Amino acid sequence: MKLMLLFFLMLSAAMTACQAETPSRPTVKSTSMQNASHPSNPYYSRTDTTKLELPDTVWKKVLPPELYPVARQGATEPAFTGKYWDYEGIGTYFCAACGNSLFRSDAKFASTCGWPSFFETVRPGSVVYRKDTSFGMARTEVLCGRCGAHLGHLFDDGPPPTGKRFCMNSISLEFEPDHPETKKPQ
Ligand SMILES: [Zn+2]
Question: Which residues are catalytic?
């Protein structure tokens, strides 16, 4: 009888050890650290460049309420109110809706228009264009090349070398500094 007890004790000890060695269930691998800061937006990724074609009903659920009207309905934030129009940090600007990389800070220039302005995109295809004739004006609308979010407009009065001015809404952008200690605008 004593032997049986010993056997059971050994068996349970072995099982416990076995359980301890069982690898924990694989968790869904996050594609980037930034995903953690967008818990309500499963489409956000700074590494995945797959085009997103989602209905506005989905975007309405996953985007912050203040971003939705600009990103999906083409609204424009008032001049001089966004957090990036006069910001000079060194780093990269990403689409706030999907994480697609859009502009480098070295293509940003001091513009008096009240919106963050850039003379070129980070790579061809990072944005797409659409003719915009709203408000009786013929303008070129700039949209995110990955998710189609409205970013702003493109004008031909920018500085060299391109002569272009990508006039963007701050709220459509997310800045990530090259150096983590860089102070981000509030
Ligand atoms: Zn996007």
Answer: 167
Residue 106 Cα to ligand 1 middle (Å): 21
Residue 31 lies in a domain: no
Of 80, 76, 107, which Cα lies nearest the Cα of 91? 107
| pLDDT tier at 31, thresholds 50, 70, 90 | very low
0.85 exceeded by pTM:
no
Q: What is the pLDDT of residue 5?
A: 52
CA 46 / ligand 1 centre spacing (Å): 10
Report if residue 156 sits inside a domain: yes
Calpha distance 152→88 (Å, rounded): 19
Query: What is the whole-number distance in angstroms between the Cα of residue 160 and the centre of ligand 1?
Result: 26
Residues with CB in 5 Å of ion ligand 1: 95, 97-98, 100, 144, 146-147, 149
What total number of domains does the chain contain?
1
* Token pair recorded at residue 45: 């990724």
Q: What is the structure's pLDDT at 10? A: 53
